[in-house]
## 1
Amino acid sequence: MLELIQRCPEFVSGYREYCREMYAKGVTYFRPTPPETIDEGWFQRTKPWYDQREQGLVPGVARSYHYWAVDGDRFIGEFQCRTDFTEKVLNDIGSIGYAVRPSEWGKGYGTEILRQGLAIAKSLSMEKALLTVNEENKPSIHIIEKLGGILSDTIDAYNEVEGDHLLRRYWITL
């Protein structure tokens, strides 16, 4: 049964494999940590930064919460929730981000990660969530719409990984 958990050392090797799959598949819509940077000390090195993000203490970065999606002992994907509507959140990354490792695509995990993630967002006192999605990412568009996403607009966007693209912005009332 899928659950969203706080980042923890027990799943670091699963996270590294997930990152390898994402890079090997050329996924650009949700780019995780470069897998070659995840060594034995990675979790302890990055923990303070993630903790500071949850406290809203990283200058120029929206307060955010990061969860890993696991099914038993299998690492499936990840979920991020940003509670501040900064310029970058509104016009690039959205307040919600989620991803599933390629070997688990098409099994309903994306829907379940987002469903559980929206409950987390609500528990963080959010009244609505903004999900942004590259117009070419049809599976994610389907999931967002299935879970109540209302298309607000489509804007021209750019980032280093995806280049110029059309970005759909969806709101979900929690």
## 2
Amino acid sequence: MFDVASFLRSNAGRRLAGVLGAAALLLVLAPASAAATVTRGTITTTSSESGLPDDCRPGITGTIVATDVLMFEEVDKSIGFQFVATDTANGQITWTDGTYTIIESVDHIAFVTGAGSTTLTIAHEDSGNTYTAGGVFLSRTTFHNIDHFTRTDGVLRVNFERGHFHFFEGC
């Protein structure tokens, strides 16, 4: 069974920290100008990690191999900054018992500053389909989460939509 929490700790959390770090760095380095400057880009990375636990099936571990594609647009304006991105990851976890999980993850990120206000919204969804070594479907797990931060005139408001887990045919 796909362990969403482990996946978030090992991949999505790192990706999000990298995206937010890049957005903050771009904010600090962004020059003020009369006209808006638009930058678009795509960053593709691959990763792997071994020893992932499966909370639904104690005693087995997995190795993940994944590809991540971050597509972004940055707009620098004289009175603010906007960073909008979609971060998509796909991969497979191969478990020590021979089963495997096909995983997908999508984050939509919007970071906007200007005129005394800053907002950050992150909408996250990931899923995993687990199969026997012979390819027979065992289960599906999905996770949805939305985080929203707003700072206006030094006052921070935070809204976390509680994460929603869905399990089909298993744990």
